[in-house]
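Our preliminary data section would be incomplete without showing what the modeling component actually yields. Below, a chain of 339 amino acids is followed by its predicted structure, encoded as tokens that our downstream tools consume directly.
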Amino acid sequence: MEMRLLGRSGTVVSTYALGTMTFGNESDQRVSHDLLNSYVEAGGNFIDTADVYTAGTSEEIIGHWLQARPEAARNVVLATKGRFPMGAGPNDLGNSRRHLRQALDASLKRLGVEHIDLYQLHAWDPLTPLEESLGFLQDAVTAGKISYYGLSNFTGWQLTKAVFTARAHGWNEPVTLQPQYNLLEREIEAEVVPAALDAGLGLLPWSPLAGGWLTGKYRRESVPAGKTRVGDNPTRQFQGWDLRSNNDRTWQILDALKAVAAAHQATPAQVALAWLAAQPGVTSVILGARTVEQLADNLGAASLRLSDAELQRLTDLSRPAVGNYPYGADGLNQRSRQY
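Predicted structure:
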């Protein structure tokens, strides 16, 4: 599997990371451990989780696996996140120093480790001063509890503010940004991706298959029911049936994916993942498989190389519709310069 630097750090991670949101929910401990074993045996070394995943159970399952596989534990790069509610109290959420201290210590305990490689703010907190959050993260680096920190679900101005706030104080800067990014959700390319590239942050896309949409399993004439994420919850956040099925662009992208996949004897999911891994700034694509079979299919993207023409075809077809200003043709031309 290809390796890349973890953003602006010297740590090396695999191009495909194992996301663990399904652990303890859609995948029990046995299946979760099978997923972890299959992933590292395929050459992967980057595991991403969060305290809020199944109320801490995901971290506990990973912790049990790390204890049972000490040789693997030495080689994997471990990432987790804090920010969302882990209790009913008013201070049981957010990016305050108080909550982050409790959240980080609890994650360390559940994971059974003394140190986390990448600790991420799971989302922006509009109530906590950014200096407070970043000051805590700096202290956590100094204390040896974390090596690096990253951001997740930040907008362009928010991540830029974080970078320059850290820089102004002489603190360590964030090394990564974890956004939703896939062929159906490309709006981050307008501001978020350029801001990340400018700051040297590596992108760690979540939901690279758009909640199963880019696997090609959905049909326009058939509303899914059960045993799929959209079927289980047709109004699912970001990925609901009504949100995407009524958009012709969705089906055009899926048709193109199937055509490119057929040319490579690959699956639409593999093509979608290979396209994403080839985008500027992407460090590692986070895979969220529920079964070993799904993971094996996803990891097939690691050996898939799309031609420049195929990449461009998918890029052109999936380009999001925008107004003329500031992100349309005239707006882009206004900010361009040649010599």
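The first strand starts at residue 3 and ends at 5. The chain has 14 helices and ten strands. Preliminary results of this kind motivate Aim 1 of the renewal.
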